Amino acid sequence: MQRYFANPALDALSPEEIYVLQEQRLVPQLTYCRDHSEFYREKFRACGVEPGDIKTLDDLRALPVFMNKDQERLNAQESLERDGHPFGTHLCADPKDIYLTGTTSGTTGMPTFTYTFTKQDVETIAPALGWRFAYNGLAYGDRVLFIFALGIYATSMSLWGLRSIKGVPIDVDARAGSELMLRFADITRPKYMATTVSLSEYLIGKAPVVLGKEVGELGFRGLFLTGEVGVSIPEVRQRIESAYGCRIYDYWAPAGHAIAITCDSPSYSGMHWVAPDLCTSFDDLVDPETKQPVPVVNGAVGEMVITSLRRQASPLLKYATGDIVQVWTEPCPHCGFPGKRAQLIGRADDMLVVKGVNIYPAAIKQVVQGFTPQVTGEMRIVLETRPPRVVPPLKLKLERSGQVVDTDLEGLARRIVGAMHDQLKIRPEIQWVDSGSLEKSTRKTPLFEKNYE
Predict the structure, then answer these.
(1) Does domain 352-450 have CATH number 3.30.300.30?
(2) Boundaries of each AMP-dependent ligase C-terminal domain copy (predicted)?
(3) Residue of 261, 299, 256 whose CA lies nearest to 281
(4) Which CATH number applies to 1-347?
């Protein structure tokens, strides 16, 4: 039998039987959270339910959202002032039992210690984190150039996954600069690289300068990319794969949940949810504005809501992530993966409203990428007032490529605006900048230029 899931026992189960397993783990996790967290006790009390009342996934979906990023920050502030730690009032373990912790990136506000684990948590989660990479060929002893902002950041937890499958991470802090990254790639000869989309693109141009060779000559067998929308955009995918001469994979594990990765499909087929026994993430969607449940059917779009199923330190119950995803319930047409798959559409807090039209930056970026190589693909959405509402026209700053002369810009802008109107029903105002003018980040390259701050 072909192995698909991190827990091989799931390969023998039908989707309905996986539901049963999730439901068997649901009540013990909910009860544990109520018994060990004042915050969760109050949430159950406010709903008028006991953990034992929540026996099915439908019962769970009927519960209101308990927490989001803003509430998590309030919990952290309260626990810091009252209990002397930043892990939040939803912490269910003794702070002395915390074995590993890491923060979110802080791109949307004060970082939170969402990635907080006991030793048992790490032992539970690490094999699933590792299986994502093994699913696409990473094997015992394979070296992985791992380039992120290391230390307390969330991405560092993937190192535990790599080590669990006996991969060898060559971890380089992205803040060290492109020369060090490329030198390490050249001397350690890794088979794979894990980093962000924007950093992988940035290294394409830097390699000839630093090493005197193209990135394709480094011999990577595959790139694991996370943290940004991009792998799902055909033009981005083609550009990176062509430069490196290998397949790229989209992966994530927000707060150590929804552990997923794309397969070896030549086209984007969604991130495959390889550990549905650890959380309910792709099984619980809500409308991002009303927070009402969205039926999880093939092609459904909604905000992902996390409920942990096997977590000690910092379990999340009915946590609205802010991630807008599209979920597919049918088997993957390429590899046959039988579970749920998802594509990140955007962030709920990134949504813009232009003349009543809801727009996500990822959709704008996808249209822009369709005009490469006349544009570099780098862009900024210029905001003069606080989102989500934008007084039209939406201002869009784009990098032109070096091959485009001034006399071409008016016609190029007209074609881009036409494509935006046809596909997204907006007519942006284009502001041109020279190639290389928009700075790339070693973490997440921002899509917004916020002039109101």
Answers:
(1) yes
(2) 356-445
(3) 256
(4) 3.40.50.12780
